[in-house]
Amino acid sequence: LHRRRHSFPTRRSSDLQKFSYDNKIVKYFAYATVIWGITGMLVGLIAALQLAFPEFFNDYLGFSFLSFGRIRPLHTNAVIFAFVGNGIFMGIHYSLQRLLKTRMWSDKLSYINFWGWQFIILCAVLTLPFGITTSKEYAELEWWIDILIAGIWVVFGWNMFATILNRRVKHLYVAIWFYIATFVTVAILHIFNSFELPVSFFKSYSWYAGVQDALVQWWYGHNAVAFFLTTPYLGLMYYFVPKAANRPVYSYRLSIIHFWALIFLYIWAGPHHLLYTSLPDWAQSLGVVFSVMLIAPSWGGMLNGLLTMRGAWDRVRDDVLLKFMVVALTCYGMATFEGPMLSLKNVNMISHFTDWTVAHVHIGGLGWNGMMTFGMLYWLFPKMFRTELYSKKLANQHFWIATLGIILYAIPMYIAGFMQGLMWQDFNPDGTLVNADFLKMVDAMKPYYILRSLGGLLFIIGAVMMFYNLIKTAKKGDFLANEEAEAPKLEQTTLTKTKGEYWHRAIERRPVRFMILSIIVVGIGGLVEIIPTMIVKSNVPTIASVKPYTPLELEGRDLYVKEGCYNCHSQMIRPLRYETARYGEYSKSGEFVYDHPFQWGSKRTGPDLAREGGLRSNFWHYQHMIRPKVVSQGSIMPAYVWLKDNDLDVSLIEKKIRAMQTLGVPYKKGYDKEALKDLKAQAEIIATDIVNNLPKEMQKSLNIPREIQQLKKKEIVAIIAYLQRLGTDIKAKTANK
Asked: What is the DSSP letter of 433?
């Protein structure tokens, strides 16, 4: 596949070994890819409609497990790990066998991989909507699910590497390089980011806190995009694009540069998600520098893919597979150009926390991953079922509907993002904010949220059409579970260096050395960025006035995490004039030293809450949680009515205090035994204040003491306690919102 011409030694038929490829496991992953893909997209559509039509979806259908804060992480996990994850396993299990001329090393491990991954997805479905979450972007699943993920990932890697060692091909093709880098890097990222201290089966705290947690999270988060959504799909691109185009890869040497430069540079880029935050400036600058450099290898890979089709452009008009792949590569190029641009501080100042980032992410998710997956599925089903595609016309219609859906999704979100970024920083001539009321900007977004929902709906319709087309293709075909093949045995002597061969060939022959070298290359950036932030105290200066959360505030913070409030609210005021004018004093790194995990957020659908404490009364917060659209005209926030009905579960408060002490939070020795008493006392103060501020007419019909006793046991009191604490540890001028 690397070169146009090959010369093969003549072999007798007796020299060839017979074996078979396992297509059954590929079929299983293919069906899982489609089913979970449609499911994840439907959850995303519901979340989009909640923003477009908040009165209906948040009030009339106001179930707690369907609230935006809970299903948004379900959507991202379903699309990334269920849809794309199964797509990765599907493509690798198909291509790896053929590139290595051998069956997967263990059928048993293949099926453990399949069923284990589906079980993990099911665990996500049964936990995230019920608020069982760690709140860390793309890593929301609780500690025991993280252990399952690590185990199944090892099973996948073990089977893949054993297959590589059992190969009948001397050199490893470029796609396999990307598979190896994906396996080792995702393992490192997942394990390092998932260090958690369990409190119970459904609750844990991140081992890291504040700034350190933010850096580790976005080192993981950005590279989850890099090494789960990008590198494996680049490997699949290097296999399926040449197959679909029936052309060799354009440039072998470009693929070498593309691979090594990409995996080295990508790992440094995570801090560009934290520009203008309280992360140390040196770490931010490293993230920017390496993000900008990423343009070169990213576009090298895109051009290598597009130029592979250079002799097949006349077929693109008629071949629907090539259409999907051309759009996928184009979207990859757009996203990988835009990403480095968004890492520039002057651009990031506008884009961060806005819907611009949402548009950027979906160009990659819908365009790159989605369209490439669709192309692979359309290529695989006729091959495995030994028949023609049921309807090329339907596939072509799917292509145009999906492409239109991407456009209709992305363009409104780009416009909305530009508007948000510019409206936030618009000043009057007298130096006051033009849009001091945040809700004016929320109201301006509604038409774009409606258009975004329409684009998502079109994309889902296309996926359903594809599912129908593939099912009909399977029904009319004859599935080949074990595809017979033959190839000569790989002799040990063929692994020795050949005089005059290209230098990289020696690396390709040694998969273990290749893996070790990949670990070294990807590990450098992480070590340089994370270790100094962990061990050098000057990177996170402490503030004497910052104290640990009270037991009630700690419980309230856990509820804030459970309800997914971080999905719409940030807690990071950047040192920018328009932010300090709106929210108050900019955030300091020392304010977050007891935050396990950090809550800086990545999107402002609502205002920043870093200085929320003391701005409004307890009664205002009570009313706002129950009737947000009445209290704040124009709000699209869900009504959290269940918080006033649910009793606060305090059964774990002693364990939580002890866990915090283990993590370095300076509660006094033995405080775990006193925590419940303090919690009840603070809850009664807040409940009394709320009841005493009820309208006089309502108070007349109530038994005030009984009402206080009932209210102080409810979840809403705890979350109010947490909100009233935010930003009050340092004495600073706070702006009105």
From this structure: B
Query: What SS3 state is found at 200?
Result: strand
In angstroms, the CA 725 to CA 682 distance is 12
Q: Are 449 and 420 in contact (CB under 8 A)?
A: no
CA 624 to CA 57: how far, in whole Å?
Answer: 18
pLDDT in tens, 355-379: 999 999 999 999 999 999 999 999 9
115: left (phi over 0), alpha (psi -120 to 50) or beta: alpha
Name the residue among 75, 93, 84 with its Cα closest to residue 25. 93
0.90 cut: is pTM over it? yes
Whole-number Å distance between alpha carbons of 420 and 432: 17
Q: Which two tokens stand for residue 359?
A: 């548009």
Q: ∠ CA 377-241-477 to the nearest 5 degrees?
A: 35
Q: 3-class SS at 603?
A: strand
Q: What is the DSSP string of 490-557?
A: --GGGGSPPTT--HHHHHHT-HHHHHHHHHHHHHHHHHHHHHHHHH-GGGS---TT--PPPHHHHHHH
Closest CA to 712 of 679, 676, 665: 679
pLDDT in tens, 233-280: 999 999 999 999 999 999 999 999 999 999 999 999 999 999 999 999
CA 306 to centroid of chain Cα atoms: 27
Residue spans of the chain under pLDDT 70: 1-14, 57-62, 492-500, 732-737
Instruction: Give rounded-to-5 percent helix, strand, coil for the chain.
Output: 65, 5, 30
- How high does pLDDT run on average in the chain? 92
Structure tokens at 629: 């659209």
Cα(340)–Cα(1) distance, integer angstroms: 31
- CA dihedral defined by 465, 467, 468, 470, rounded to 10 degrees? 120
> Cα(178)–Cα(329) distance, rounded to whole angstroms?
16
Give the pLDDT score at 506. Answer: 83
Count, in order, helices (H) and strands (E) of the chain: 30, 4
Percent of the chain with pLDDT over 70: 95
Three-class DSSP category at 318: coil
Residue 433 forms beta bridges with which residues?
Answer: 427
Secondary structure of 192-227 in HEC code, one letter for each residue:
HHCCEEEEECCEEEECCCHHHHHHHHHHHHHHHHHH
Helices within 294-344 (DSSP H only) = 295-308, 313-316, 320-342
